[in-house]
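The records we work with from here on pair a chain with its fold. These numbers are not coordinates but entries in a learned vocabulary of local backbone shapes. To see the layout at work, look at the sequence and tokens printed below.

. . .
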Amino acid sequence: MRFITGLLLSFLIFSCYEPERNCQDFKTGTFEYEALIGKEVLSTTFTRNDTLEIDYFNGKSDSSSIRWINDCEYIVKKINPKNMAEEKAIHMKILTTKGNEYNFEYNIVGDTNKQKGTANKID
């Protein structure tokens, strides 16, 4: 009987756990994101406000418009796309936050293939 009671108590404790998700803290600021591309780890810095995101990669900058769906989700669309692939909007979703870091997932709008990443707020 003790075993069943302990099992139920453990289940109740762990089922109530919710990861930290303070998305409001990450709506604006300067961030860094690293990605493994092939065998190289490449770093991108971006600055975001309520309506605009500017990415800095390999000495070049690129601007995107932002439309927030809610505090944790937004749509990013390149302002001056250079090809058909860049014309597609991207859905971003902040999954968890901790300190100056947030985990997110993203996908091309309409595509079910999702990728995940982690960004650090540096300013």
